[in-house]
Amino acid sequence: MNEVVIGKAREKLSSFLRLFSTSPSSSTSSASHQDDLDELRKLERTMRRIRATLHDAEEHWNIREESAKLRLKELKEVAYDIEDVVDEYEYEVNRCKIEALHRADGVHNTGKRKHQEFHMTWFSDQEN
Question: For residues 118, 120, 121 and 124, what is the CA-based torsion angle, rounded to 10 degrees?
Fold first, then answer.
């Protein structure tokens, strides 16, 4: 049972890592972005299931077999990997949003500077 869960979690993690390798900052369609978000949600659900299984195992199961301990250790590693991927993706999305705000602010400020420079030049010409 645990091997199936570990296998599915690793498979989902691998597929999401392929999606993650293309940065959200690249110009992708909104449908593609929505697919990425759907995949992220699936990954988060998988992570919650893994955490619940780990909690149950640690609280209620009397595990003495080394193979079972190893599977639980692998499951924990997968859960940590999923958390890392989710955190990295959220960081990247937020970074892209901030960059977009800075670009928009830069365009807005550039226009103001040109406007101010024009007025300063015009007024200095009027004084002469």
Answer: 150
CB atoms < 10 A from the CB of 81, how many?
16
Site of tokens 């002469």: 128
- Residue 44 near residue 85 (C-beta atoms within 8 A): no
CB 28 within 8 A of CB 97: no
Do 74 and 35 touch, CB atoms closer than 8 A?
A: no
pTM here?
0.52
Lowest-pLDDT range, 8-17, 34-43, 64-73? 8-17
The residue behind tokens 């299931």 is 49
Indicate if the alpha-carbon torsion angle 20, 13, 40, 73 is positive or negative: negative
* pLDDT tens digit sequence for 70-86: 888 888 888 888 888 88
Instruction: Look at the alpha carbons of 91, 92, 93, 98 in this order and tell me if their dihedral is positive or negative.
Output: positive
Specify the pLDDT at position 27.
Answer: 46
Q: Which amino acid is at 83?
A: E
